[in-house]
Design brief:
Helix 4 packs parallel to helix 5. It is built from ten helices and 14 strands. The protein is an alpha/beta fold. The chain starts with a strand and ends in a 7-residue tail after the last helix. InterPro entries: Gfo/Idh/MocA-like_OxRdtase_N, Gfo/Idh/MocA_domain, GFO_IDH_MocA-like_dom, NAD(P)-bd_dom_sf. Keywords: Oxidoreductase. One of its GO terms (molecular function) is oxidoreductase activity. Belongs to the Gfo/Idh/MocA family.
Length: 322
């Protein structure tokens, strides 16, 4: 499987290293807006072709997939162009800035019978998937509450504070909390309330989202780009609780009983990350001719973006693209 990268930033560097672990996936080309930086990236990761011209990039033969790793506000533009050029697409999360853009991309990909996937790496992680087994086996009884924290002090990172680039805590790290909430409690919440701090540039620097469900379950999701915090989550059940190490990486989870004794530990295998499993899943899809990821189906992506659209309306927080 031959892959092209659009974007040569930090996440692209991680992905270039991950691809090298997997037999049968080759990074064949990279595009960057700076030719000099694209060349440097290509030299570092032994990529045979680099360019700053999108037209040339999309004309390359025998390319199976375009991977998009740009700031959020460019995802829709590049994904749409790649699909129009009859390329399969894997795009970093969020797939688009709003529900409307994502729905259009899925519709276009379906029309052309092309693969389109959102690279929500946490959802491919076997530690994350273990939550369903724990829940089904009632290891701590029914799950009743969720508390999540994620973020850091990133105010010097232009991408995270610029509304033109889709900045703000919600669209960058806040969606990890929503991901876990929907995974264990589902999307049929009863109500939600929010607390938010909007910064001078017009994006959310910190927020808390509180959800209630008709069965009495609840979730409190915290995200920030203005302060150091303990990245992780706590799931409380009728007969114990689960501690999760890092909300996005999901390196490990620990299960404790009513006596606060650890009764179960699940960790990622050494040398593996959620990114590794993500690429294995994408490879499987393309080899099988599937056009969707079972780990991140279009319904999930659209549900999250529908909610983030509404939350931003509640906050009167608009992006130029809106």
């Amino acid at each position: 499987m031959k892959v092209e990268f659009i974007g040569i930033g930090a996440i692209a560097e991680i992905m270039a290293q991950e691809i090298k672990k997997i037999k049968g996936i080759d990074l064949a080309a990279v595009y960057g807006r700076s030719l000099e930086k694209a060349e440097q990236f290509a030299r570092t990761y032994q990529v045979p072709y680099f360019t700053d011209q999108l037209t040339d990039f999309f004309r390359l033969p025998e390319i199976d997939l375009v991977y998009i790793a740009t700031p959020h506000s460019y995802h829709y533009q590049y994904a749409r162009e790649a699909i129009q050029q009859n390329k399969h697409v894997l795009c970093e999360k969020p797939l688009a800035m709003n529900h409307r853009e994502a729905a259009e991309l899925f519709s276009l990909a379906a029309e052309k019978k092309l693969f389109l996937g959102e690279a929500f790496w946490t959802r491919f992680n076997p530690v994350f998937k273990e939550l369903q087994t724990i829940q089904n086996n009632q290891l701590i009884g029914s799950f009743k509450s969720l508390i999540t924290n994620i973020g850091g002090n990133s105010l010097t990172n232009r991408r995270l504070i610029d509304p033109n680039l889709g900045g703000g805590a919600l669209m960058d790290t806040g969606i990890y909390g929503l991901n876990l909430l929907f995974e264990i409690f589902g999307t049929d919440y009863n109500d939600y309330t929010t607390i938010v701090n909007i910064g001078e540039t017009g994006v959310d620097l910190q927020h808390t989202l509180c959800f209630t469900y008709r069965n009495g379950s609840s979730g409190v999701l915290n995200a920030t780009i203005q302060a150091k915090t303990l990245n992780g989550a706590l799931i409380s059940g009728e007969k114990g609780y689960i501690k999760i190490d890092h909300l996005s990486e999901f390196n490990q989870l620990e299960v404790y009983n009513e006596k606060r004794e650890r009764i179960y530990l699940q960790q990622l295998p050494e040398g593996m990350t959620g990114y590794t499993y993500e690429w294995l899943a994408v490879k499987e899809c393309l080899e099988a001719g599937w056009t969707e990821l079972k780990e991140v189906p279009p319904e999930f992506t659209l549900e999250v973006l529908s909610l983030t659209d509404q939350i931003r309306r509640d906050w009167h927080m608009k992006y130029p693209i809106d």
